[in-house]
Amino acid sequence: MKKIFLALIIIGFSACQKPKYSTLDAPWEPDYQVNRSESSILAFEKKDAQQMPAPGGIVFTGSSSFTKWQSAAQDLAPLPIINRGFGGSTLPEVIYYADRTVTKYKPKTVVIYCENDMFGKKKKTPEQVRDAYVTLVKKIRTELPDVRLYCVSLKPSPSRWDRKDDTIKANKLIQDFIKTDKKHGYIDVWPVMLKDGRPDGSIFLGDSLHMNEEGYKRWTKVLKPVLEKTA
Question: Is this prediction's pTM over 0.85?
Fold first, then answer.
């Protein structure tokens, strides 16, 4: 009887424990339509209908820092880059469209960059950003269990420097999660984007958020050697 009672206590205690990371399909309820970028996705599909990228490539997924990197395929050549970033996107949107912008290409490698979640009308915490990132990874891994993943650190931007501490914390939380997966890497772009401890204004456009050609040259120098190792 004592053994049964002890077992019930252990089961009850285990049931009360919260998982370390979110396993929900979406870590929070977005205050916007997650399909608001449907026109961008349809444009990708039209492009695919004309010429479908070969399987085994490197998919870029995420927000406008990838979208505006129109020369990524040329800058990172001969790496087989499939750039499917769509501007203004958040992690819930990237999750929503993952089947149509990531997994369908059967890539060997997926590179993720998405920074908008903490800067919308309802700003998310670093912990919520981490949970959303984990949810995205779980979704991708369900379809592509052996894919190589890379996360590009949330960048330091002049227009968002007032939330520097939250950005650093989100990056650290995501890094801690990445360490649990041997097929997952973290690419830190901060060192090449700072000058005297602050974002280098010379590598940004007039909006102080998006990068100019020099900014992408610096990203190329950081990303290319990493991606070449697993190409």
Answer: yes
Task: Kindly state whether residue 13 falls inside one of the protein's structural domains.
Answer: no
Number of domains in the chain: 1
Q: What digits encode the pLDDT tens for the residues 145-184?
A: 999 999 999 999 999 999 999 999 999 999 999 999 999 9
**Mean pLDDT value across residues 90-103:** 97
**Which CATH number do you get for residue 109?**
3.40.50.1110
Cis peptide before 191 (omega within 30 of 0): no
164-178 helix and 126-143 helix, angle to the nearest 10 degrees: 30
Q: Say how far apart CA 87 and CA 94 lie, in whole Å.
A: 11
Q: How far is Cα 74 from Cα 8, in angstroms, rounded to an integer? A: 61
Tell me the chain's radius of gyration from C-alpha atoms. Answer: 19
